[in-house]
Fold this sequence. Notes:
Blueprint: E1 4-9, E2 14-21, E3 24-32, H1 44-65, E4 75-81, H2 85-102, E5 106-110, H3 111-117, E6 135-140, E7 145-152, E8 155-161, H4 167-177, H5 184-192, H6 215-231, H7 235-266, E9 270-274, H8 281-294, E10 297-299, H9 311-322
Parallel strand pairs: 1-4, 4-5, 6-9, 9-10
Antiparallel strand pairs: 1-2, 2-3, 6-7, 7-8
The structure holds 5'-O-[(R)-(carboxyoxy)(hydroxy)phosphoryl]adenosine and zinc ion.
5'-O-[(R)-(carboxyoxy)(hydroxy)phosphoryl]adenosine (KG4) binds near residues 141 and 183.
Amino acid sequence: MDVNILGIESSCDDTSAAVISNGVIKSNEIANQAVHEAFGGVVPELASRAHQQNIIPVVDSALKKAGMTAEDITAICFTRGPGLLGSLLVGSSFAKGFSLAQNIPLIDVNHLQGHVLAHFIKENEKDTDQPKFPFLCLLVSGGHSQIIIVKSHLEMEVIGTTIDDAAGEAFDKCAKVIDLPYPGGPVVDRLAKLGDPLSIKLSKPKIEGYNYSFSGLKTSFLYTIRDRMKEDPDFIKKNTENLCASLQHTIIEILMDKLNKAVKDTGIKEVAVAGGVSANSGLRNALIRYGETANVKIHIPKFEFTTDNAAMIAIVGYYKYKKGLFASQDITPLARFSID
Ligand code: KG4
Ligand code: ZN
């Protein structure tokens, strides 16, 4: 019998629903919330309201695209956390109602596990290009920067994490300093292609182990601009591309240094990258080059699965379904929720 999983993602500002059938993607619908652009960041209260408006149409569309009705769904899963509580409540309440109405299992999913398992979403039955266990995963998003040892589909160990800002946050906050729109990551990526990555020197953190830190880089970016503007008030306007290229170059160097250390120390020669920042073209190129020079197998997700989406939630739901790991109706969302 087919196992058709309906996944719901509502942890931040994207409302998404997806159907995965026996591990193969059938649909992945996402409603982005433009309402936050004017505020230069996600406004939690507005996000919850927008999820409430979007959730039914998005689920409806995901079912239609998959050629299914609610009766065809075997189990429903939802993002339990981490994320914004008001946003998570919309997705979890919807999933609970759907599970009761259809009398099917309810499955809770850790959003971060979703980013990692996005690598296991199959495009078709013959798709076998998936990481082999154990592999290292560099998880870089707006809220997290982690190095994870992935031991099996549902068994993960965080060996490094950020002690302050996440990589995506560094992109977004620095972009804001130079008046770029939110989210800054994709804009910096585009403008960086036109600039010189070595034109502006920015400081890198000196911390032990596999942990990351990006708040010093943000300060260094801010102070460099402040100093240069004393000489030339138009410094930002004249150097936007160089600022983007230098910022991106430094973030990538910081990420790659620790990843390289983790590969060397663990001896694991298989690496995957996940999360919104894995859409970054510079990071993708750096990983491909690293794979070639260090003889490491690199897995880069399709763009569709880098930023928040419900297909990655549905694939975790699929593996939990196979193990009979179901949730009860009294489950509550978690704003903080570790991957391990
Ligand atoms: O995974 P995600 O969609 O949401 C979280 O779980 O946080 O990641 C969003 C983050 C934002 O900080 C955004 O600026 C960043 O991913 N991002 C990028 C790119 N596309 C998205 N950062 C750098 N380059 C990109 N192309
Ligand atoms: Zn995410």
